[in-house]
Structures are given as C-alpha cells and as structure tokens.
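Hello,

Following up on my earlier ticket. Below are the two sequence lines again, exactly as submitted.
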Amino acid sequence: MSAISAAEKVDGFTRKSVRKAQKQRKSPSSSQYRTQIAPVELSSLPQLKDAPSTEQQELFTQKLQQCCMLFDFLDSVTDLKNKEIKRATLNELVDYVSTNRGVLVESAYPEITTMISTNIFRTLAPSDNPDFDPEEDEPTLEASWPHIQLVYEFLLRFLENPDFQPSIAKRYIDQKFVLQLLELFDSEDPRERDFLKTILHRIYGKFLGLRAFIRKQINNIFLRFIYETEHFNGVAELLEILGSIINGFALPLKAEHKQFLMKVLIPLHTAKGLALFHAQLAYCVVQFLEKDPTLTEPVIRGLLKFWPKTCSQKEVMFLGEIEEILDVIEPTQFKKIQEPMFKQISKCVANPHFQVAERALYFWNNEYILSLIEENIDKVLPIMFCSLYRISKEHWNPTIVALVYNVLKTLMEMNCTLFDELTSSYKSDRQREKKKEQERDDLWRKLDELKLSNSTLEQNNSHKLLSVQNNNKNSNNNNRGSQ
Amino acid sequence: MAGADGDDSLYPIAVLIDELRNEDVQLRLNSIKKLSTIALALGVERTRTELLPFLTDTIYDEDEVLLALAEQLGNFTMLVGGPEYVHCLLPPLESLATVEETVVRDKAVESLRKISQEHSPVDLEVHFEPLVKRLSCGDWFTSRTSACGLFSVCYPRVSSTVKAEIRQHFRTLCSDDTPMVRRAAASKLGEFARVLELDYVRSDIISLFTALASDEQDSVRLLAVEACVSIATLLPQEDLETLVMPTLRQAAEDKSWRVRYMVADKFSELQKAVGPEITKNDLVPAFQNLLKDCEAEVRAAAANKVKEFCENLPEDNREQIIMTHILPCVKELVSDTNQHVKSALALVIMGLSAILGKDNTIEHLLPLFLAQLKDECPEVRLNIISNLDCVNEVIGIRQLSQSLLPAIVELAEDAKWRVRLAIIEYMPLLAGQLGVEFFDEKLNTLCMAWLIDHVYAIREAATCNLMKLVERFGAEWAQNTIVPKVLGMANDPNYLHRMTTLFCINALSEACGQDITTKQMLPVVLKMSNDQVANVRFNVAKSLQKIGPILDGSTLRDEVKPVLEKLATDTDMDVKYFAQEAISVLPWHK
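Thanks for your patience. The regenerated structure is below:
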C-alpha cells in the first residue's frame, strides 16, 4: 500500500525470496490503536465455583470487567503475569457459561457484550505483506490469539447456552454489533474467520430481526470486493454461511434473493482469487437452481458472459461449475440454454491448454449429460462438430486427441446420418466461412476509405481511429488461433 | 462526400448492425471501436434515428464491448450533427452509467461529463439534468454511484431552482443506505463544493462533510479527508476553526489506520489549505503523532512528507518547530523497525539540510545521514545516495565522504544486480560532486570492475556510465585513465569481456573525439576482426558502423573498408549480414 515494497523497486525478480525473508522476521500482527493508558495490575479473583451462589453473579460481573483489560501481544515479555490471569479468567468464564444453568440473568447481558466488543472489535492491521497472495503466502496470524480465541469461544457458548434469550440480547447484539463482526471476516487469520463463521451463523439463526440486515451487509461486502477492492479474506466463509441460508429460503424466491444471485453471486465469478472460494460459490449457485430451476437460463448466461478469457485455471473451475449445474438441470431448461452453452463448450474443447480441453471433454463421461445430449443431438452435434473434428487432427496433446476420438464416436453413434452430413460438408463450410471473413475485411476496407476521404469532416477522431485499427489488427491475429 | 449523406447501396445499416451483433465478441469489439466509421458512413441523420436507438435498445454485451462503446460515445458530438443534437447521446450513455462493471460505468460518466460541456444551458436543463435526477433515484446502487460524478458538471450552468434540486439530490446520496454510494458521494464532495456558492458550502457541504467523516465505514471516512483539502481551501480562514478543524482533528486520531494513513498522505495539501496559524497549533502535534503511529504504513506516509511539511512551515519560527518538535521524531524513525518507513524517510531527509542550514545540518542531521548510510537495507542507503546533491549545496559532500565510500562500495558489490544497477546510475552524479581526484582514487576501480560483471545489464550500464564520466571529466582524462584499461580488455580470454571493449568503444568514441578514436581505438577494433568468436566479429562490424562517421574519409576508405569487405565474406551468416549493413550505411564519399 503506502510504502511500495522497497524490494520491488530494487529488484523485481527476487520479490518472492524477499517476501520469504520478511516472513521469517515478521512478528504476528495485532491492531489495537491507543486503546488504553498504562495497564493496571489485575488481581486474582476467587474461583466462581468456590463462591457462594449469592455472590456468584457479582463475581461473574467482576471477572467480565477484568477481561476488558487489553494487552500488547506484540511485546511478548511484558505483563506476563496479567496476561496469564486474564487467560485463566477467560477459561473460567467459558467454562461457567457452558456448564451452568441460570447464569445468564438480564443484567449480565450488557456486561458480556461489552467484554466481547472490547476484545474482538478492532481495526485490522495492515497486512505485513502488501501483495498478500492468499493462495501462496502464509497468513499473518493474530498476535493476541491466546486471549481472543477464548473470547470467541465465550461468545459462542453464550449464544448456545440454553438460557440465552434473543429478546434480551437483541438490545446489545444489534446492527452495529453485526456490522463490526462482519468487518472482522477480513482477518488474515483463518482460525479467527472460522470462529466468526460459526458465530455469525448462530446469530443469523437466533435473531430473526437481523437476518435481512446481515444479508444486505454481506451483499455490500461482496460488491465492494468485486467492484472496488478485490480484497477480502473472508469471502469463502461468508459464502459458506450463505449456502445454508439459501437452503432455507422459502418458495417462491423473493425478488431480493434472485437479485442477490444475479447481481452478486454471478459477478463474484470475475474475482481474481476465485480459486479461494469457488467451491462455496458453486454450492450457493446450485442451491439456488435446486430451489428454482427457472433460474438456470439466466445463471448460465451470466457465467457465459463472465467466461474467463485468459485464465485457464479459472476456465477449468467454470467448467466444473457448469457440470455441477448440468447435474441438476431440468431437460426443459437444458433446451433453453443448450445453444450458447455448447458454443462455449466447443471453444473449450478446442482450447490449446490441455487441462481446459480435458475438463470439457470429461462432460461426456457423465451419464446424465450424455442423455441430455442424446435427446438434443440435432442441436448439439452441429455446434460441437467443427471443433471436435479440427482438434482430432490438430491438438498437440495425444490424451486430448484420444478423448476427442471417443467423444466423436459417441456422438456419431447418437446420430449417424447427421454426423456423415457434417463430415461431408466440413470443407465447404470452412470455405464459406473464409469467404465471409473476406467480405467483412472488404466492407471495413471500404468504410475506412470512405472515412479517409471524409477526414476533413472528422478531424478530432482520425488519429485515435488509426491507432485503434492497428490494435484491432493485432488482436485479430492473436485471436484467430483460438476461434 | 458520398458518405456524409449515407450511401445506402454500399453500406446498408443492416450490414453494419450485423457487424455490431456478430457472435464473436472480438469482432463485435472491433466494430464498436470503429463505431465512428459506421456513423460516418450512415451520416448524421441516420446515426441519430437508427444507430443510436439500436445501441440504446439492444446492447446487452460483454463489459469490454460496453467499455469501448462508452468511450466512443464521448467523442460522438460531431457525428450526430453537432452540439444542437448532442442530447441524442444521452440515452445510451445513461444505460451504460447503470451497469455493474465499474470501469464501464466510470467511462460512461466520463463521457457524460465531457458532452455535458457541449450542451447549451437550455438543453442542460431539459435533457441532462433530468438524466442526473433519474440516475440519482435509481433502484440499484450503480446508477446512484454514477450520479455522484455528474452533479458538479451541471450545477454551475442551471437556474437557481434546479440548483436547489441538485443540492438536495446530492445530500440524499451522501446519506445513502449503501456504502458504495456514500463512498462515491464522499469522493465527489470536494469537487462539488468547488462549484457551490460559498454560503451553501457553509450550510450544506459542512454538514455533509462532518457526517461522512464520522461514517461507520472507514472506507467512507477516509474519502472525507480528501474532500477536507478542497473545503478548507474554499472557506475563509476565520471559518476553518469551527467548521473544519474538529473533523480534521478527529480524522488524524481515527481508530482506523486507513484514515490516519490518508491524513498523513494528504498532509502537505492539508497544511497549505488550513494556513500557518492552524498548522502551528494543530498540525504540528498531529504530525508528530503520525510520525509515531503504531502502524508502519502510517509512519511511512508521514515520513514521506517530512521535508514538504517543514518547508511549508511559517518561516518566523520554522527552525524552532523543526528542532524541538519534528527532529526528535525523525531521529527515532532513522532506527525504525520497518524498512519501508526508513526508506521513505531516507528519500526526503536530505532535503531538511537546506531548510536548517549549515550548522544545524552538521550537528543534527549529519549523524542521521551517516546512520542511514550504514542501514542494513540497501534501499535506504540508495535513497540517501540518490539525494546527495541536497546536502552538497549546504555543507559540501566532503563531510560525508568518509562514510559514503564504504556505503558505495558495499552497494557496488551487492549480491542483487538491481542494487548494483541502481548505484551505477548515481555514479556520474557522485563523480561530479566528489571531484575528479576523489573519483580516480576511490571509485575508478569500481567503475572498471562493473565492466566485467557477470550480468549483462550491469556491463551495459557500466559502459553507459563511462560515457557520462567522459562527458563530465573530458577526453584527456579518458585517454589517461579509462581508455587504456578498456582497450586492454580486448585481449581478455573471455569473449564477453572482449565484446565489452567493443561496446565501450561504441559508447566512448563520440565523447573522446576523432583523434583518440582513430589513433587508439580503431586499431584495436580492426585487430579484433580476426577474433575466433563470431559474436565478436559481428560486433566489430557493428562498431565500425558506429564509429565510422567520426573517422576521416581516408581512414575510412583505407583501413575500415578492407576489413568490412573481408567480414562480408565471412563464413558466419550474422557476421556477413552486419558487415554488409555497415558497408551500405557508412559515408564512403565524405
């Protein structure tokens, strides 16, 4: 961010190694900012279980207040005694709320939520590694984890206590609380995100009044992730929660939910780090389609619109998702979407990257998909034929060629007559295509000439246009191979 | 001018539209990028009545195509018939301003802003302003986000009733439910404030600014910091204390480091905007805190501003403020735990010497420079060395030379070639400041050692460095110190080193002049034409082509030509090629 990595300026090639070196030196991060003045000594209070029941409540409150004291974990040598007292107290508190009945009296709620908020709500520190790559780099762990973990544990036990009363708690666990909780999902520490996931799920389950708000805020987080920052560590965890939320949606689906699918989940596929949450995302999408099959067409069209153009790894993921969708597709929906979809599949089959081609060809191992293709062979075969035929002769990878032969054989068995027709017209079709391309070139050449003769009419654009045309020529050439 | 009226027989719109609809995205993209050509072929009338409606209605496409379209339409005014008809472009741009993809939307807004200038005041109210209103009331956040960027372009040119409406819409968006919209509004707040009447800045903008600056999301709050600069600039000094400073103080101590970072990053602008009095009372302590911030990001951003901040302090007690308030923080930053902080500081710290003068520099700054010159991080050392000129003017470089030399030597031998490359680039500068004697004594060996570095980029840079040194110290110096060493390498057993000789000659011949080139360099080059390595031989041909123009006509004909002719019959293809090229290029008849 701020300090452009010094190493990068000096030596772009050794970034990895420099990063590694940094990592060895770095201390785990924590991010409390000027939270408190000089720490006071904590005194060891008597154990809750030893106290007479009349005093337990008072002692419980005292202990909660004691746990509001925060410590600097970046400095691992100071305050050891106090840190230990707080740790032991937190442990005791966790134990207390999970094993005892009748401890959650109304007056305890504000004390409990204050203790939790003070400990966990904080601005996350800037990442040690400005270009943190979650797929490759080790995450920075939260320094104060020894305490924070117990606070999360406590929160969870609090929510799960049989005496827990949402009607009282909603005064404290409110929109602001949830908003701050959601921001923490950006934590680099996977242990923290895991706790948050379970906790948010519990809150969603217990506080009906917060549900719409939680969904909306998750929406906002995703939209910011997609269109603004491209950075948020907790996407997978949030999607996981959503997966089970979607599962519980009532039918017919509300417009709000459909909008979420089309305007948030589908665009999420464009993210650079898709690999980190694709499984969860695909699960959510399929959940939607199982609820409401009529969404199949727009969903597949959406995926086709965002189909990766340069990233083969993502293309493989997209193909995986398409297969998951096809596994649950209704035959009527299949008919609606087969043309554009198989046009894309046909491009994938011809992809020079063998993993992409292979993934697409694996569709033909899927019994259900095969039955759908067979049913619609007159539509599918003409789309697929050209790519398959060409690839069977041209692909560099022998495995792919072998797979293609099998697929061609399967298709031929489905409709032998059509297959023969297509084979015999293959050459003339190619020639017709070439001729069409020639005509297009001619058209544009004529238009360009016209433009030149009109150049006086249009002084300001001409320079730009010329360069655009050059670019077009280049990109045309580059593309021809993959078409 | 057949095209201006549209020639139906040649270019029926159906064909063109077919192109825009082509199944292949790349072809669609190409067509869109040549949209102006299509419009030209159709003529203004049909562009307005057929092409634009088509674009408005049927474009649902890939973002890349939409981006191209949004850009094209910004330059379409003449193609629809000039400013009189420019409003025809609004419908397609309006729908583009509502799409999801940020780049498309931003481009559409950019085009809208552009064509807004081409609207007459009447058209602006009749066509443009309603569009802004529609966008700002859109259902989905995207259109409201886009609207934020359009208020300021139409506000100055509409009637006062419409102005009031625009202010109202902007106010609504500033408290929008969606943080994306609030961010968009916050980022345009400064721009909008600039076109508002001062009274409305006081009444409207300040309350919006205060609200955005205490938004629940730090991403909104930090954008308010940016707006703060514009707002503070607009307001008279006496209003600042009450209207702006409470918010600014709060931002400088925000619990989110992103907001504090923004304050640090904009510190110089803020300082100028609030003026010297407030700077003295408020910004100095705030700056101290930022320099001591717990997050390295914030410290680095603040460290970056140290020089500018000090420079802009009011002159009457600048020195006192720096010495008592800023310098102690700077001293601590020199030994910061984070290397980004240290290198940000190293980039500007030398600039303080001019502000503090000779005595203070020697007493207080010099120890810091020296400490940074010994820093473990090469970036820090490089940053100090790259700014030596600032100190040179104040105290002379000699004060530093004791420590400078080990630092340079260490960088010169750094294991990373990019570090070596960076220090080579400062050599001419250093040579100029240290003087020829010091150079000959201490640095010359380094410069020669780089010539045999095992990385080509270093050898290349070293060659170029020699050329710059000769330009500085003159041909005579070259003849005595470097030319013999360079020519000596022609007999090196390693062919890469022999080639380096040739590269040096290429670089040096012009600076050294005809005499040295003819008498000392040429014989070596000619001799090397018999080298057993083909790469050396074809580089001889290239070198001869390079130095040929410097030689006189007879040398060229008598000595160079026979050698090139011989090389032109070489067994190696490349040698032949370059020899022939040299023969065809050189000025044989001069």
